[in-house]
Amino acid sequence: MNLSNPDFNVAQFQRQDSLTGMGLGLGRLKPELYKQRSLEGDEGSRRGGGCGRLHFILKFDCDLEQLIVKIHKAEDLPAKDFSGTSDPYVKIYLLPDRMTKHQTKVHRKTLNPVFDEVFLFPVAYSELPTRKLHFSVYDFDRFSRHDIIGQVVVDNFLDLADFPRETKLCRDIQYDNVDLGDLMFSLCYLPTAGRLTITMIKARNLKAMDITGASDPYVKVSLMCDGRRLKKRKTSTKRNTLNPIYNEAIVFDVPPENIEQISLLIAVMDYDRVGHNEVIGVCRVGNDADNLGRNHWSEMLTYPRKPVAHWHPLVEATYELSPPPP
């Protein structure tokens, strides 16, 4: 595939945030260095149990009104690396607030990491019944996305813990498919014009990312080749909703000889005016996608010039998806 083909560019839009063209002279790409692993990962090791256990301690400081969480250790984690080990770390939220996130250090090459790290969450005691403590255990990968090992959710503080005294807890780490919502979009390819059109229609039941119980979602579409992002576009942002309606078209110029090597990585993002934009969930379509993503792409190619629409469930993005430059 000749990436320096001058026809292989994003269709130009009349807007201020036009994209910078892909730099040339990249040399020969080595797909094995950039190829992404499946977004859904190794399902065999994720379904149900078999993900190890997490030990942690809870305490509540009534004077300072803060929940004290000590992540002690994890045991019997599944091996995610070829060496038979993992490089685990833990992220922790006090839901529904996702603005405050804590993270442990990464422990290299171990399935039984001892963290012994303490994190503080300011919260009134009266609010505890409405809060959930969410632990996500990840395997760090220096060159690719960080693979999620599993999660622990604690939502009945007052029944479990003997506040204000310390309470030691141990929970099985589970991998459950978290419901992040669904995205509907259509694909249409015009071979004669070499034009790929993605129409973002709407989303439903998105995960709430703000403490208000809503989100400010927009959709970012990345044109991918062998795991490398070539171009990206985004929709407008819809405020304070979990069921946004877009009806916005995004167009890429893709010659027929290149269409088989291309895929689309689609991320639903939560806009944050002050902090960083967060990924709500992602899906992928293309010949190398899984199940629905591959079938949708195949249907588009089978029926050229005809928009083909489907709902796609969003999955967790466990690799870094930086927001587009301003």
TrEMBL record:
It is found in: Cytoplasmic vesicle, Secretory vesicle membrane. Keywords: Calcium, Cytoplasmic vesicle, Membrane, Metal-binding, Repeat, Transmembrane, Transmembrane helix. The keyword Lyase does not apply. GO terms for biological process: calcium-ion regulated exocytosis. Pfam families: C2. The keyword Transit peptide does not apply. Residues 50-173, 179-312 form the C2 domain. It is a single-pass membrane protein. PROSITE patterns: C2 (PS50004). InterPro entries: C2_dom (IPR000008), C2_domain_sf (IPR035892), Synaptotagmin (IPR001565). One of its GO terms (molecular function) is SNARE binding. One of its GO terms (cellular component) is plasma membrane. Belongs to the synaptotagmin family. This is Synaptotagmin IXa. It comes from Sphaeramia orbicularis (orbiculate cardinalfish).
